[in-house]
Amino acid sequence: MSFIADRPAIRSVYVNQTCGNSEDVCLTCFVRGNPLANISLRRPGQNIAIIECLNTTECNVKISKSAIKSSEYECTASNLIGTARQTIIIHEDLKGRSQCKRLV
């Protein structure tokens, strides 16, 4: 049996407006990679992650709608082979017009 390793790839980053209650939104990051990745969600330029998920393919965080002011959030996935990043912009109106841009 051979082991094929590859760097993480971010499959999707999206906002779910129906998590928990009407005052929260969920930010979810899906990743693939072998070995499994450590995933963090943070605001770009900040050293402290909002949440970190270890050795997994999915990471979720609830954010209060009142805390979102047209903000960017970044999903970073790392394993022994490499790192991937993707940023999502969450608009203040939260009407499903979130935009994603992929960073290398």
Strand line-up of the largest beta sheet: 4-3-6-7-8
Measured on Cα atoms, how large is the radius of gyration?
14 Å
The dominant shape is elongated
What is the number of beta strands? 8
N- and C-termini, Cα separation = 31 Å
Q: Helix segment count?
A: 0
Poorly predicted ranges (pLDDT <50, ≥5 residues)? 95-104
Fraction of residues in H or I helices = under 10%
What structural class results from the helix and strand content?
mainly beta
- The fraction of residues in strands falls at over 45%
Question: In this structure, how is the largest beta sheet organized?
Answer: 5 strands, antiparallel
Overall average residue pLDDT: 81
Report on the structure:
Residues 95-104 have low confidence and may be disordered. The strands form 2 sheets. Strands 4-3-6-7-8 form a 5-stranded antiparallel β-sheet, with no helix packed on it. The chain has a 3-stranded antiparallel β-sheet with strand order 1-2-5, with no helix packed on it. By secondary structure, it is mostly beta strands. It is elongated and about 50 Å long. The chain has strands at 6-16, 24-34, 37-42, 51-56, 58-64, 71-78, 83-90, 99-103. This is Ig-like domain-containing protein. Residues 8-91 form the Ig-like domain.
SSE blueprint and pairings:
Layout: E1 6-16, E2 24-34, E3 37-42, E4 51-56, E5 58-64, E6 71-78, E7 83-90, E8 99-103
Antiparallel strand pairs: 1-2, 2-5, 3-4, 3-6, 6-7, 7-8
Protein name: Ig-like domain-containing protein
InterPro entries: Ig-like_dom (IPR007110), Ig-like_dom_sf (IPR036179), Ig-like_fold (IPR013783)
Organism: Dreissena polymorpha
